């Protein structure tokens, strides 16, 4: 069972992810090819509210910790790879974007599976 600091970390990461999403959107609007940064922005801004919701439901939702970890790590890998491709001309490491995508999908599956488990409060 993750400690209570993990819950606060999720909200902190959500805030950073939101900032990164807005910054990437702004940068994409000023570049020659906005596709990579636009994609990074979309992933960050799509998953930030999910992390906030998992934080809010933490004490009742049994899979909140694993779902938050997978969504945050997957988003960081996926968006980080797209940002690196834009800024450096190459990705973080081979298969980092697909690995990030798989982690995000696993996070959403953890959210879905959580509906079948009894609440932590039960």
3D structure, described in words:
The structure is a single chain. This protein is mostly helical and 122 residues long. The protein contains four helices and no strands. The protein has helices spanning 4-28, 35-56, 64-88, 96-114. The relative contact order is 0.15.
Layout: helices, strands, pairs:
Layout: H1 4-28, H2 35-56, H3 64-88, H4 96-114
Helix pairs in contact: 1-2, 1-3, 2-3, 3-4
Give the structural class.
Answer: mainly alpha
Instruction: Classify the helix fraction into a percent range.
Output: over 70%
Q: From N to C, what is the helix and strand string?
A: HHHH
The main pleated sheet reads as: none
* Tally of helical runs: 4
Compact description:
With 122 residues, the chain is an all-alpha fold.
Write out key terms for the chains shown.
about 120 residues, mainly alpha, 4 helices
């Amino acid at each position: 069972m993750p400690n209570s600091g993990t819950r606060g970390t999720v909200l902190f990461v959500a805030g950073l992810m939101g900032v990164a999403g807005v910054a990437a959107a702004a940068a994409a609007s000023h570049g020659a090819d906005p596709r990579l940064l636009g994609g990074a922005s979309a992933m960050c801004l799509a998953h930030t509210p999910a992390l906030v919701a998992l934080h809010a439901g933490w004490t009742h939702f049994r899979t909140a910790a694993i779902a938050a970890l997978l969504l945050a790590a997957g988003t960081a890998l996926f968006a980080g790879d797209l940002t690196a491709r834009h800024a450096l001309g190459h990705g973080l490491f081979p298969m980092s974007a697909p690995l990030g995508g798989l982690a995000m999908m696993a996070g959403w599956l953890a959210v879905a599976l959580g509906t079948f488990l009894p609440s932590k409060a039960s």
